[in-house]
Amino acid sequence: xxxxxxxxxxxxxxxxxxARDYAAEVLDGLPSRPAAAPVPDFxxxxxxxxxxxxxxxxxxxxxxxxxxFSGSAGPRYLGFVTGGATPAALVGDWLTGTFDQNAVxxxxxxxxxxxxxxxxxxxxxxxxxxAHTGTFVTGATMSNTVGLAxxxxxxxxxxxxxxxxxxxxxxxxxxxxxGAPHSSVxxxxxMLGIGRDRLRTVPLLAGREAVDPAALEAALAALGGRPAIxxxxxxxxxxxxxxxxxxxxxxxxxxxxxxxxxxAFGAFAALSREHAHLVAGLDLADSxxxxxxxxxNVPYDAAVQFTRRRDLxxxxxxxxxxxxxxxxxxxxxxxxxxxNSRRLRALAAWFALAAYGAAGHREIVTRNIAAAHRLxxxxxxVPGVRLLSPVRxxxxxxxxxxxxxxxxxxxxxxxxxFLTPTVHHGVPAVRAAFANWRTRESDADRVADLLSELLT
Length: 456
What we know:
Elements: H1 3-10, H2 12-28, H3 53-64, H4 87-99, H5 111-125, E1 133-137, H6 140-159, H7 163-166, E2 176-178, H8 183-191, E3 199-201, H9 213-221, E4 228-233, H10 245-250, E5 257-262, E6 287-291, H11 292-295, E7 303-307, H12 310-317, H13 346-380, E8 385-387, E9 395-400, H14 404-414, E10 420-424, E11 427-433, H15 441-455
Parallel strand pairs: 2-3, 2-4, 4-5, 5-6
Antiparallel strand pairs: 1-7, 6-7, 8-9, 9-11, 10-11
């Protein structure tokens, strides 16, 4: 055994203690850590010939890389709908690496059953019924990809084509309809061979990011009975607007389509008694995307994909080899996602749900919503600021009467917050997205004070 590796094995308890102490130091400093860090130019160094051992590598990381890491796990990082990692989720993530399970089969581990239990808990959290089965994937992009892949197979079923064997070209013209799709949907369509241009955007309700159900029905009727895919939104990226899921699902009585719902973070509205109506009808979807490293506050990367048609999911993703189980009954997980090997992403979510339950996560969601409303109220009173939408859930979308990139750069350089740019109905704008378990209304006030100072 390499001498440094042997020494690290002998000293492993001390190494883990050192890593724990450093992690605790980082987490304790999050309230004062800059939300965004300036990124200098780094010249790559050569691969070490011998290496410095784990303790040396930790020291090198602390000196060279850690100072440039953002405070994205902290309370005022309001970009990209980024959550943090609750204490229980962090424990689960550390143990994920410790046990290092390849969570795909029951042949050698109970890890698959733990994932099944976690999926059941999540199904209950979001108000989905037993007809929906679920599987962990890396994030919303892959969750949307898996859901749309199953929808692609459903199109083949309707048209008498085995897409998994014959290829997407056998489908002929594929139509995908959506009102305000997330960019990951276009990416998924590209990866699936359907093509970005196959997505047809449908008119929205006036002043909204929600699709007009009458316009959607007209688009479906124009297909003359040819099956399609509809991507509905439960929480749009700019203003967290919600399509009327029940109205859309009702259109299946007259028109054939696969209903995929992108609920990456909007699904968590189900936890708020005041906002649960926004996801009414989610259980009617054929497939659902939910991103867990957003509002569940588990470490990257973790998402879940739900579907009513596990048989079609197996048709797409099954893997046949002499050393693998056949996809019969309750199939092993390598038959359900693009990955053959995968880490036990479910463990961090299991820990978070076991530790805090539905009530604990409801409190996080409710507090984040209150903080978003607080920021919206404060900004509405700042001269030169205009809200571009009501604060519906956890995102504040606004514009200013000056250069948006310059403002965002000033915010980032202050270290007090991090916000991201967008364009809403053609207007350059700013998004402040609240999803972190540490965030309080006082953090919203600090961001409002900063923006007021920069804009006056």
